[in-house]
Design goal:
This protein is an alpha/beta fold. The protein has two domains: 125 residues, Lyase, Ornithine Decarboxylase, Chain A, domain 1 (Beta Barrel), CATH 2.40.37; 250 residues, Alanine racemase (TIM Barrel, Alpha-Beta Barrel), CATH 3.20.20.10. It is built from eleven helices and 17 strands. Strands 1, 11, 12, 13, 14, 15, 16 and 17 form an eight-stranded mixed sheet that branches. Helix 4 links the parallel strand 3 and strand 4. The two termini are 16 Å apart.
């Protein structure tokens, strides 16, 4: 929902652009902070959802840690003020130079996804005369019941070490002198709306914990990843996700020892609803069977619909009584540059402002210069008052 004042300000800005409602962002952060503290859980923000520097500095101010999946994300987290002892570094393909970045920064942990990776980290740490803290990402083979392209916890996925490989893992860990095994890590997918899968994950983690106990291996940290979904259909009614329900499931089902800490890596659910992609109608093109609403924003500005067939609520901010069905498309020279098909909107005219909602996650951060399109700028609610 946008105020009349916001709409007037939008008219003065060149489109397309990303608009961040910082009040929504801070409301979300306050909710997360309060609930996670109640359960004594630690939350790391996943930079891959949005690495905008101004957004990151606000998130850091609420005491969250950082979840990074590249060396540059580690550097961006440090630049934004995140403490190095709150930075977890994940990813299946860390390069040697990226591992050195993490070691030099003395980060909280490397979330390792294969035995070869652990061996390389040990080798690099030995050369630097350091001990690398690692958490091993284990594939629990839990179905997250989400889109196949964002499911990460099944045996068929490229992520993590399979349970069948744990004996070999234990043998390797015990043999390495420059590795400090501090935790276990899980992440089963993204945009998860059936929260019952997090109970399944908790129960599987309990089993894995028992296995390590049998091997006389103590684990300090249990990292459950993220994946909490949002409502793309009703962004105003559900501007903060189901954090209480989410954390409560783990509190009730995850068995932690007194000295253990549970960590979470949330991204989308923190930033998505605070951001929108604001565009203009270029042309209302009628064909024999379709009405095409051609915008000046495209898949280069928000790739999720083309990549995942993802839904985003779309609003014509120049409200009119009559509605029409449109295929809402962008200007990029690709047939997949489509935001949505057969979508009911107020009858649109050239120059109308169009808001594509819930774009705070995986919008700006995945933008490209494809077709040599200029990168859209970002604006913030506190600048437009």
């Amino acid at each position: 929902m946008f105020s009349e004042s916001e709409k007037k300000k939008f008219e003065q800005i060149e489109t397309p652009f990303y608009y961040y409602n910082l009040e929504i962002l801070e409301k979300t952060l306050k909710t997360i902070s309060q609930i996670s503290q109640k359960y004594n859980f630690k939350v790391h923000y996943a930079l891959k959802a949005n690495s905008n520097l101004k957004i990151l500095k606000i998130i850091e101010s609420y005491g969250l840690g950082a979840d990074c999946v590249s060396g540059n994300e580690v550097l961006r987290a440090l630049e934004s003020g995140f403490s190095s002892n709150k930075i977890a570094f994940a990813g299946v393909g860390k390069t040697d130079s990226e591992i050195k970045i993490g070691l030099n920064a003395n980060i909280f942990s490397f979330n390792c996804e294969s035995i070869p990776e652990i061996l390389i980290i040990n080798e690099i740490a030995e050369k630097q005369r350091k001990k690398a803290p690692i958490a091993v990402r284990i594939n629990p083979n839990v179905d997250s019941k989400t889109h196949k392209h964002i499911t990460t916890g099944l045996n068929e996925n490229k992520f993590g070490i399979n349970i069948e490989d744990l004996p070999n893992l234990v043998e390797v860990i015990k043999s390495l002198k420059n590795i400090d095994f501090v935790g276990i890590h899980f992440h089963i997918g993204s945009q998860i709306t059936d929260l019952s899968v997090f109970k399944d994950l908790s129960l599987k983690v309990n089993e894995i914990q028992s296995y390590f106990a049998e091997q006389n291996i103590d684990i300090q940290h249990v990292n459950l990843g993220g994946g909490l979904g949002i409502s793309y259909e009703n962004p105003d009614e559900d501007s903060t996700s189901r954090f209480e329900e989410y954390f409560k499931i783990f509190s009730e089902n995850l068995k932690l020892k007194s000295y253990q800490t549970a960590h979470f890596e949330l991204g989308r659910s923190i930033v998505a609803q605070s951001g929108s992609l604001i565009s203009r109608v270029l042309y209302n093109k009628k064909s024999t069977t379709k009405n095409f609403l051609i915008l000046d924003a495209g898949m280069n500005d928000l790739i999720r619909p083309a990549l995942y067939q993802a839904y985003h609520k779309i609003e014509n901010l120049n409200v009119r009584a009559m509605t029409c069905l449109y295929d809402v498309v962008g200007p990029v020279c690709e047939s997949s540059d489509v935001f949505v098909k057969d979508y009911a909107l107020g009858e649109a005219q050239r120059g109308d402002l169009i808001a594509i909602r819930s774009a705070g996650a995986y919008g700006e951060v995945m933008a490209s210069n494809y077709n040599l399109k200029a990168l859209a700028q970002a604006y913030y609610s506190n600048e437009l008052k």
